[in-house]
Amino acid sequence: MTSFDDRERAFEATFARDQEMAFRITARRNRLLGQWAAALMKLTPEETDSYAKGVVQADFEEAGDEDVIRKLVGDLTAAGVETDEATVRRALDERLVEARRQLMEAQ
Description:
Blueprint: H1 2-40, H2 45-58, H3 66-78, H4 85-106
Helix pairs in contact: 1-2, 1-4, 3-4
Protein name: Aldolase
Pfam family, one: ATPaseInh_sub_z
Organism: Sphingomonas abaci
């Protein structure tokens, strides 16, 4: 029975580590996405940092990426930046690749 228990604990540890990495990648992606949007809105470095943190926080409103996409499209449109949902989704995908790369290099 101990072999089974050991395997179960190892599986649980792997699962927890994978979930933590997925969370970190998503948070990094959202921060990079916030920085991208802030550059389009021509925010100052201080405003950019604050805005990027706000984008990370927006992801906690509901499951999935729709809350982040809605925030960015709304903020960019309000700032007078010509954009649409497809552009934001493409930027989100690009930042996901960059976030993964950054975290893999950091390990």
